[in-house]
Amino acid sequence: PRGASRGADGVVRLAGVPVTELAEQYGTPLFVIDEDDFRSRCRDMARAFGSPERVHYASKAFLSSEIARWVADEGLSMDVASGGELAVALHGGFPAERITMHGNNKSRAELREAVSAGVGHVVLDSMQEIDRLDAVAAELGVVQEVLIRITVGVEAHTHEFIATAHEDQKFGFSLSGGAALDAVRRVFETDNLRLVGLHSHIGSQIFDVDGFELAAHRVIGLLRRIVDEFGAAKTSQVNVIDLGGGLGISYLDSDDPPPVDDLAAKLANIVATESAAAGLPVPTLMVEPGRAIAGPGTVTLYEVGTIKDVRLDGNASRRYVSVDGGMSDNIRTALYQAEYDCRLVSRDSRAEPVVARVVGKHCESGDIVIRDTWLPDDVDAGDLLAVAATGAYCYSMSSRYNLLTRPAVVAVRDGKPRLVLRRETVADLLSLEVQEHD
Ligand code: LLP
């Protein structure tokens, strides 16, 4: 986080709050969000892309009512991908007209909730959905603005499970074979849908502008074909191109993601050049960053428990440092071989750094938080470790595996902590159970 520093006593402060106090007050594991970091990334994005409402915070990265309030405050828009995300955003007072509803299999109920709440845009993902949404809008007596999600056939250089624009996957309408053009035709035939733009999302944790460039090129190519086929009058309102999310962040010191300003300038330039070349007016560029806003400013605090030096072949050994959470609060290492960095934050140590594997407390050997890291040789039970950049896709993908209760989430700002989500309790676990009848 931008507001992290180590005090003279060796204890790390987050926005001025000593981590030892946070651990004492709220327990561990604990997610600590540096609120100014989160908000300043919202502002950086808004500035880079020329206006806050063009930037949709992808709430799947992390959402609570409090986060919705921050994002609303900063003037950004929001991308939600389920009825649950929609409900929490609305509960936080997020203005519906700045919400875009996503999903490859939205239920009729979710569509109805979105349309009746008055969301700004729905992103259409299938032929069935076009008819379903048209019916819902007709029922509610409204005309709903929509975008169509295009699968542009770009191979994003990221993990297979988070790359989304190659042809052989479930999202969107394929460009090849004419599915995308058929979808546009179908939307034009409806009475209650109004097409305002095209959408593409090529994947996540991307460092390289090339994939976005190719996506923009292809989306604008499709826009040209749409104008040719349906005429300028009918298509004049189709003027948004949403290039989705995916901006990569640095998890390790060695990661080097492009600065947001550079990427935004390049994307704007590509869109301007491509549309000029296609003889089209320049469309409004929108984006949907999740990780790049929520990721960097949060750390997970863990308390160290058991330490084991395990003999490997020969003379080597590996140190296993167990912490009090694991794959239930961060599944990303197990799922994507994601890499993280951590520090001893409750005190200084001059001990020699040794290679260690940070593992959780779950009942499987894949329960690894950090595969290989360096920790001082004297790290011991009771020490606090902070894992960096855990703000995106950690809490939001958390589980209750082994019936661990979900950690609390705390925001820090100006030397003060504020609880955002309380820790789950055993009572929460039991609250889903149905009383037995005898
Ligand atoms: N827009 C759409 C349509 C998306 O599907 C996504 C992410 C985003 C925006 C935001 O992408 P971001 O800027 O956060 O990269 N669980 C995975 C990431 C999955 C991303 C899914 N879609 C992970 O932990 O890496």
From TrEMBL:
Residues with N6-(pyridoxal phosphate)lysine modification: K60
SUPFAM superfamilies in the cross-refs: Alanine racemase C-terminal domain-like, PLP-binding barrel
Residues annotated for pyridoxal 5'-phosphate binding in this entry: G246, E288, P289, G290, R291, Y393
Cofactor(s) for this UniProt protein: pyridoxal 5'-phosphate
Gene3D superfamilies for the chain: Alanine racemase, Lyase, Ornithine Decarboxylase, Chain A, domain 1
Source organism superkingdom: Bacteria
Keywords of this entry: Amino-acid biosynthesis, Decarboxylase, Lyase, Lysine biosynthesis, Pyridoxal phosphate
Entries under InterPro entries matching the protein: Ala_racemase/Decarboxylase_C, DAP_deCOOHase_LysA, De-COase2_C, De-COase2_CS, De-COase2_N, De-COase2_pyr-phos_BS, Orn/DAP/Arg_de-COase, PLP-binding_barrel
Pathway(s) the chain acts in: Amino-acid biosynthesis; L-lysine biosynthesis via DAP pathway; L-lysine from DL-2,6-diaminopimelate: step 1/1
Lyase recorded as keyword: yes
Catalytic activity: meso-2,6-diaminopimelate + H(+) = L-lysine + CO2
Start and end residues of each Orn/DAP/Arg decarboxylase 2 N-terminal domain: 36-294
Binding site for substrate: R291, R332, Y336, E364, Y393
Assembly description: Homodimer.
Family from the record: Belongs to the Orn/Lys/Arg decarboxylase class-II family. LysA subfamily.
Its biological purpose: Specifically catalyzes the decarboxylation of meso-diaminopimelate (meso-DAP) to L-lysine.
The protein's name: Diaminopimelate decarboxylase
Native species: Rhodococcus olei
